UniProtKB/TrEMBL annotation:
This is Tripartite tricarboxylate transporter permease TctA. It comes from Streptomyces hebeiensis. Residues 20-441 form the DUF112 domain. The keyword tRNA processing does not apply. The chain crosses the membrane at residues 21-49, 55-73, 109-132, 144-163, 170-191, 203-224, 254-272, 318-340, 360-381, 401-426, 433-450, 470-490. InterPro entries: DUF112_TM. Keywords: Membrane, Transmembrane, Transmembrane helix.
Length: 507
């Protein structure tokens, strides 16, 4: 009851005309920056940080709440409409979301993303309000072996699920792991695959990889089809605003499952929402494969609903971990930690005592910001969808310009522009030969984490490999992974057998 009373005080603080204006401004600016390829929610918070210098702390953090959740929706909007997600956290939802857009259901995909973001964010914020201290204790259960098991689970699950061929999925994963090796080894300090270039000592920026594989790869693929029948076909857009009852029946379980997957990952410092969004996508794809009318590969609404809910649920509980422990579990949380310090505040257990008004106003602003975004973005979904009616040569040339500007803005390195072009050609080649892109990205994102945690586990155990399966968490993860992959292989073998049977009968 004390939490409810404190939350009520937070609502009284922010429900004033000026503070509501800051929420609205933050939501609009966050969405606008998030839509730009190569930027995204973390960059939105970083770019808009100087704007808040003249505001009081409560006004500044209320605006940050709008920027944070607005940026997440902007990431998804760019990914769904143009296959250029503003951030890596929006990649999983863009896989099916862009296919929905190409089949004329862009507005429905955007509405699904908006509602999923609202459900995931609201439910995770409720948990943060009531259970922040208890949720934060979960992070203490994860050691090096558990983080490694989590990374291996994500590697194999995504590689096996997103491709019709497990071998192609694993081949794409190897490409991602190879790219992740570029840079200075954090454990030994040795430079790897840098060609002696100091600019590569920090590795290849995830923004460069994401923009190259997704944005530039898609642009080159479209350019290669110029003049063909497929190129002449204009992507239709029905512009329908509301989801049908069937859409909601399909999406609702995925929204809830995505939220359940995303909530714990906000407390675990694995770098952001990439793992839960991909796990949610993999879960929905496995469940969808059991349906005779599965739309996966053609634009399945569950493939948008689950990852979007998971991403926002993770963002919500990540803020809980930041406030309760001072632990930034994502890039966006790290930028917000810098914002707290800018105002002389240190997130952690004492923050609830020393700045109670600010903390509860910020938590209340989460609910308000997500409601504002839902009200704003549902009506705007058909308008965003009309971007697909822009002639392709204008649309994709604009994507290229914004993508290159976004890459250059993040680092100021000319080498990054060369790298994004090279990776774009790699993305085109992968599309040409049927290799999935998602395993490359998951390998790049989680490869360094897996390597570091494996070496830490070996160092602590003095080379004893049994430490990798010495806890209930690791055993459960590996068992679930083995059962899931076995079931998937059996299901695909049955499908191939069924496909051959009609041909054998007809002959």
């Amino acid at each position: 009851m004390e939490s409810l009373g404190n939350l009520g005080d937070g609502f009284l603080t922010i429900l004033t005309p000026m503070n509501m204006l800051w929420v609205l401004v933050g939501a609009l600016l966050g969405t606008a920056v998030g839509v730009l390829p190569g930027l995204g929610s973390a960059m939105a918070v970083a770019l808009l940080l100087p704007v808040t210098f003249s505001l009081d702390p409560i006004g500044a953090f209320i605006m940050f709440a709008g920027v944070l959740f607005g940026g997440l929706f902007g990431d998804s909007t760019a990914g769904i409409l143009m296959n250029t997600p503003g951030n890596s956290t929006a990649i999983a939802g863009s896989i099916e979301g862009h296919r929905m857009a190409k089949s004329g259901r862009a507005a429905q995909a955007l509405a699904t993303a908006a509602i999923g973001a609202f459900i995931g964010g609201i439910l995770s914020s409720v948990l943060v309000v009531f259970f922040a201290p208890s949720l934060a204790e979960l992070a203490t259960l994860f050691g090096p072996a558990e983080y490694l098991a989590l990374a291996v689970f994500a590697f194999v699950a995504i590689s096996a699920v997103v491709s019709e061929s497990v071998l192609r999925g694993l081949a794409a994963l190897v490409i991602g792991l190879a790219i992740a090796l570029v840079g200075v080894d954090g454990m030994s300090g040795a430079a790897r695959f840098t060609g002696g270039l100091p600019e590569l000592f920090d590795g290849i920026n995830i923004v460069v990889i994401t923009v190259g594989l997704l944005a530039l790869g898609e642009v080159v693929a479209v350019a290669a089809r110029r003049g063909t029948t497929e190129d002449l076909r204009v992507m239709p857009s029905t512009g329908r605003l509301w989801l049908s009852r069937r859409d909601i029946r399909l999406a609702m379980p995925a929204w809830l499952r995505g939220t359940a997957i995303g909530v714990p990952f906000g407390i675990i410092p694995v770098g952001g929402s990439e793992v839960p969004t991909f796990l949610s996508y993999g879960t929905e794809r496995r469940l969808g494969s059991r349906r005779a009318d599965s739309m996966f590969g053609k634009g399945a609404i569950q493939g948008v609903a689950g990852p979007e809910a998971a991403g926002n649920a993770t963002a919500g509980t990540a803020m809980g971990a930041l406030l309760a422990l001072g632990l930034p579990t994502s890039a966006t949380a790290a930028v917000l930690l810098a914002a707290f310090r800018q105002y002389g505040l240190q997130p952690g257990p004492l923050l609830f005592e020393r700045a109670s008004d600010l903390v509860w106003a910020l938590l209340a602003s989460f609910f308000v910001a997500m409601t504002v975004l839902l009200v704003l973005n549902l009506p705007f979904a058909p308008l965003w969808a009309k971007l697909l009616k822009v002639p392709r040569h204008y649309l994709y040339s604009g994507i290229t310009v914004f993508a290159m500007l976004g890459v250059y803005a993040t680092s100021g390195k000319v080498l990054d522009l060369v790298l994004v072009l090279a990776i774009g050609l790699l993305g085109f080649a992968m599309r040409r030969y049927g290799l999935p892109v998602a395993p490359v990205l998951i390998g790049v994102i989680l490869g360094p984490l897996a390597e570091t945690e494996f070496r830490r586990a070996m160092a602590v155990s003095e080379g004893d490999p049994s430490v990798l399966v010495s806890s209930p968490i690791t055993i459960i993860l590996y068992l679930v992974l083995a059962l899931g992959v076995t079931g998937l292989l059996v299901q695909r073998a049955r499908n191939r057998r069924r496909a051959r049977t009609p041909r054998a009968v007809s002959s």
